[in-house]
Fold:
Amino acid sequence: MIRIDPDNANSYAGRGSAYFGLSQYDKAIADYTEAIRLNPDYALAYSSRGVAYLQLGNDVKADADRAIAIELGYEP
Structure:
């Protein structure tokens, strides 16, 4: 079993990416959200969460996350 560091935003983002790869988008979104809570300037987590929202058909939340990621300097 892989243990997650509860204080490390990268741990949650990494697990979120794993969930995304398994098409478990709700779990991915939850982990990206926790990564953002721990590091509000984590542009990649916003971008990744936005893509997960797109997969669930939530264009409004996807667009909002994309805008924040860009504002924080993320360049896809």
Q: What stands out?
A: The longest helix spans residues 25-38. Helices lie at 9-21, 25-38, 43-55, 59-71.
